[in-house]
Amino acid sequence: MTAARGSVLRPQWFAPFLADRGTRKPSPHTMKAYRQDFDAIAALIVGSKGDLAAMSLGDITTKAMRGAFAQYAETHKAASIQRCWSTWNVLCAFLYTSDLIPANPMPLVGRPKIAKTLPKGLPPTSVQALLAAVDSESERRASDWMERDRALILTSLLAGLRADELLRANVGDVRRREDGAIIQVRGKGGKDRSIPGRAGTRRGPRGVPRQSRRPLSRSGKGALFHCERIGGVAANHATFRRF
């Protein structure tokens, strides 16, 4: 039996799967999701949340998985069902290729289709509130830099960047064009993508005071929002804690 966080006992055959996924260096949230999704379905199959280790490889059948997911679907949204199905599909594929089960039953288990949605932009009132918070002097500290914070917000809004993409961006990733700019970022899942920005995108990073920037080499390297007074990129800065 395999002991895990919160004294949860899982079957021994589940540990090699986690070890195999771990070699791919997923995020801690992904590893946590693997455990949670396994626990949810395993508990429905064995009939007890406290006896997950009792689940055997022989319990992984098409009938059992269909029944467990039907119960799971009664109390969860489509996105959660889709993620859980994906976890079990990967797990069963691993068990099948390891010659531990005769077949992967998941292709025969139903799952919801998630409609693709476009990202939603912030309404003007929220943008005004963010900029007003930056300009506010009531909570300002010695390490706060109004110009840099405004540049962070405006660049993220105009280019549609995620917080992690914004903080990892380098000066050399910004390429100017007549109608705006293109920012090359490492996106979600480690995928590179080129993001077009409006004309105002070029003015965002340039709004940071010269003394706040890290000295840049001729190669154009250096964090886009590096601040010497903080000792690195603004990843731990109050901007993202306040907003």
Task: List low-confidence stretches.
Answer: 200-220, 227-243
Determine the mean pLDDT. 77
Kindly name the structural category. Answer: mainly alpha
Order of helices and strands: EEHHHHHHHEEEHEEH
Characterize the quaternary organization of these chains: single chain
- The CATH architecture of the largest domain comes to Orthogonal Bundle
Strand neighbour order, sheet with most strands: 3-4-5
Provide keyphrases for this structure.
hpI Integrase, Chain A; 43% helix; DNA polymerase, domain 1; 7 strands; 243 residues; elongated; disordered C terminus; two-stranded antiparallel sheet; mainly alpha; 2 domains; three-stranded antiparallel β-sheet; 9 helices; single chain
Structure commentary:
By secondary structure, the protein is mainly alpha-helical. The chain folds into two domains: 2-108, Tyrosine recombinase, N-terminal domain (DNA polymerase, domain 1), CATH 1.10.150; 124-242, Intergrase catalytic core (hpI Integrase, Chain A). 43% of the residues lie in helices and 10% in strands. It contains nine helices and seven strands. It has helices at 14-22, 28-46, 62-73, 78-97, 124-135, 146-159, 163-168, 200-206, 238-242, and strands at residues 2-3, 9-10, 174-177, 180-186, 192-197, 226-227, 232-233. The strands form three sheets. A three-stranded antiparallel sheet has the order 3-4-5. α2 packs across α3. Mean pLDDT is 77; it is low at 200-220 and 227-243.
Protein topology:
Layout: E1 2-3, E2 9-10, H1 14-22, H2 28-46, H3 62-73, H4 78-97, H5 124-135, H6 146-159, H7 163-168, E3 174-177, E4 180-186, E5 192-197, H8 200-206, E6 226-227, E7 232-233, H9 238-242
Antiparallel strand pairs: 1-2, 3-4, 4-5, 6-7
